[in-house]
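Per your request, structure below.
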């Protein structure tokens, strides 16, 4: 199924965080990148970063927390709409499950506490 995606304008007091994570293999070197922009689409700040060695889920989670949410919070933003192509990362953060034994459990809990 082909679906047309387009940029959706957030509410007035919300900024948008677009994130992407990738790895050169599974597992291998991983990195994350993204940008934060205002409601009108104006660029606020962008970021790239090394996310360690791991599968594709690790850089997605790192982009969300370390490089995305924390960067937005440091700039005083509290209402953040996040776009990610990783349903796994979004589900893990929003499902509210106990992740004590998950490989990235500590990171998932940290992200959930910010959100």
């Amino acid at each position: 199924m082909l679906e047309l995606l387009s940029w959706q304008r957030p509410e007035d007091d919300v900024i948008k965080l677009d994130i992407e994570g990738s790895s050169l293999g599974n597992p291998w070197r991983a990195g994350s990148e993204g940008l934060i922009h205002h409601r009108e689409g104006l660029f606020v700040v962008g970021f790239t970063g090394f996310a360690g060695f791991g599968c594709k889920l690790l850089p997605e989670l790192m982009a969300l927390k370390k490089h995305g949410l924390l960067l937005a919070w440091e700039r005083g933003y509290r209402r953040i709409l996040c776009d990610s192509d990783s349903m796994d990362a979004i589900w893990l953060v929003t499902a509210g499950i106990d992740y004590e034994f998950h490989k990235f459990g500590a990171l998932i809990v940290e992200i959930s506490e910010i959100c």
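The mean pLDDT is 85.

Regards,
D.
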